């Protein structure tokens, strides 16, 4: 996730846009962590070379057209634009189906897009847009390169960089990147342009020129990521290539390695753009919990977002439990805490999430959690681990599906003597832990129903943001079992705290406290799982 940010120094000391020079189209590499995209580009070239449209003609035409701003107030609302985009894509695919049996042939797609263009069916009348294309949202997916052209995201058949003349200067409008698999974060990525001594000769290819000018103009550039849906949980065609629109970026810096001809362009994602899911809690949390995925097209599998644990019914009817509060004070008729305060529900604000947490897709560990704000170390509760409270016997039956089980353990680390947050006592040696139960010894020596060590939190169906926090052998969070004075005495809350100052956007991690070689599956076989935390002290095994 941490990328070395290139120096912001530019190779053009005059800070003025470069002028259009002769175009020397060759393939070039768009890099995410130095991975080349040549293969994809040459495939596009191969497929388009067979078409009749002469490249020279396209150039002439391009010189004449000028930019259209996507931000100008449009005649139609964004909703109707969106409908139009959907209809147009539907028409495109229907026509592909009609004209060719082999839908994956790019030649067919070019032909179909030409037909739609001739019929005036291109979105935005085939004009090139700078910035947001109305009707298209971040996260929208497209099955074929030509669909990007039809909807106005990227109107190039040959090049990964699209550009337009704006006030006499060529500027970049969109980039198609073909590599997503080696990144934790696409907020920053690097494009490597073609070689050529721009400073001395004043000449370079159009793509390099456009990106250089965009650096000065700071115009928004659309980024589209191409990926293979086979690798990320299926796609519209059950595996294959898909293009996903990732939003607007700007060229932050340009540099050139000593002795090398090619330029590198650092593109940085513009802030305040629509994200994939604005608030997965649907307003249940005080701070919205957004979901972003810069890795693939996968969505968070369904679960129900909760802000309080779900306790088993029998717990409330069992006098040995000694619970006086019902469902965390939600029922003012039954809850003794509420009755004490004249029927008023006590504030549960102490459990509110205060940091702007974000669920994001990691490279190798599924979803993870990070904070958009920096988090100072100390007694700041990041969040509580929530789910269904189940007995350990029940949890043991879930050994083959234990991803979201958190064994509460035998120890209570904090006791709140009142609703005041600062009156707790920290007394902890033993952490609670995620499953497997075999490792945590959850059943040891307990006969009483409400004794601790008999309960596990299952966040598979019901849970909150904490269910996405991954393990690290060098974690930046720690766990405390916290008991409020109105709680079921031996079912503490699992509260997560910052163990250090955590910079914004750094993944939040816990030590799952698993034991190696002690997890057993339902057939009695030893279970192992690799750890991809990446810490220098990583032992390479989760369990
Ligand atoms: C509580 S879930 C964490 C969220 C999970 N990544 C997701 O996508 O929903 C625990 C699971 O995440 C994965 N995981 C967490 N930390 C990991 C790590 N350091 N290395 C590999 N997988 C990890 C494992 O599959 C583990 O069973």
Number of strand segments: 25
Helix- and strand-based class?
Answer: alpha+beta
Could you tell me how far the N terminus lies from the C terminus, measured between alpha carbons in angstroms? 25 Å
Which CATH class of the largest domain?
Mainly Beta
Tell me, rounded to a whole number, the average pLDDT: 71
- Contiguous uncertain segments of 5+ residues: 1-75, 180-184, 195-200, 229-239, 321-333, 335-347, 416-431, 435-451
CATH homolog superfamily of the largest domain: SET domain
Radius of gyration: 28 Å
Q: Supply the CATH architecture of the largest domain.
A: Beta Complex
Task: Write a brief structural summary.
Helices cover about 20% and strands about 20% of the residues. It has about 550 residues and is of the alpha+beta class.
């Amino acid at each position: 996730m941490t990328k070395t940010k290139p120096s912001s120094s530019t190779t053009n000391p005059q800070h003025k846009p470069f002028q259009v020079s002769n175009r020397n189209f060759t393939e070039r590499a768009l890099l995410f962590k130095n991975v080349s995209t040549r293969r994809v580009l040459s495939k596009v070239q191969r497929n388009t070379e067979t078409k009749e449209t002469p490249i020279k003609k396209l150039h002439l035409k391009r010189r004449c057209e000028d930019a259209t701003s996507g931000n100008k107030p449009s005649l139609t609302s964004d909703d109707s634009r969106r409908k139009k985009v959907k209809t147009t894509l539907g028409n495109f695919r229907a026509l592909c189906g009609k004209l060719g049996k082999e839908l994956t042939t790019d030649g067919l797609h070019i032909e179909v897009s030409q037909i739609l263009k001739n019929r005036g069916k291109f979105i935005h009348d085939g004009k090139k847009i700078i910035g947001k294309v109305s009707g298209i949202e971040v996260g929208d997916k497209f099955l074929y390169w030509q669909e990007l052209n039809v909807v106005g995201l990227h109107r190039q058949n040959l090049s990964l960089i699209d550009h337009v003349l704006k006030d006499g200067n060529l500027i970049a409008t969109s980039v198609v990147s073909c590599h997503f698999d080696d990144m934790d974060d696409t907020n920053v990525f690097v494009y490597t342009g073609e070689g050529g001594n721009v400073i001395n000769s004043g000449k370079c290819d159009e793509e390099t020129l456009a990106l250089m000018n965009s650096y000065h103009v700071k115009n928004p550039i659309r980024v589209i990521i191409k990926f293979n849906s086979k690798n990320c949980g299926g796609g519209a065609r059950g595996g294959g290539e898909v293009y996903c629109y990732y939003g607007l970026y700007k060229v932050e810096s340009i540099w050139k390695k000593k002795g090398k001809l090619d330029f590198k362009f650092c593109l940085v994602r513009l802030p305040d753009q629509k994200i994939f899911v604005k608030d997965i809690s649907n307003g249940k949390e005080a701070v919205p919990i957004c979901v972003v995925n810069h890795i693939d097209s996968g969505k968070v599998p369904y679960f129900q977002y909760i802000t309080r644990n779900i306790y088993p019914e029998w717990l409330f009817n069992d006098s040995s439990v000694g619970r006086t509060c019902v469902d965390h004070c939600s029922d003012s008729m039954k809850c003794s805490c509420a009755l004490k305060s004249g029927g008023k529900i006590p504030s549960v604000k102490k459990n509110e999430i205060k940091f702007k947490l974000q669920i994001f897709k990691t490279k190798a560990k599924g979803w993870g959690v990070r904070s958009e704000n920096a988090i100072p170390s100390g007694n700041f509760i990041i969040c509580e681990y929530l789910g269904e409270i189940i007995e350990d016997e029940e949890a043991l039956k879930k050994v083959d599906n234990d991803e979201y089980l958190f064994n509460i353990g035998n120890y209570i680390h904090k006791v709140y003597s009142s609703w005041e947050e600062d009156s707790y006592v920290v007394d902890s040696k033993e952490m609670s832990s995620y499953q497997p139960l075999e490792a945590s010894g959850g059943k040891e020596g307990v006969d009483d129903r409400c004794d601790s060590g008999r309960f596990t939190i299952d966040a598979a169906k019901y849970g909150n943001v904490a269910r996405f926090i991954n393990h690290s052998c060098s974690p930046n969070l720690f766990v405390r079992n916290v008991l409020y004075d109105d709680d079921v005495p031996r079912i503490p809350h699992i509260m997560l705290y910052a163990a250090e100052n955590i910079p914004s956007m750094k993944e939040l991690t816990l030590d799952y406290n698993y034991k190696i070689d002690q997890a057993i599956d339902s057939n009695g076989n030893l279970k192992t799982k690799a750890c991809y935390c990446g810490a220098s002290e990583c032992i390479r095994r989760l369990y």
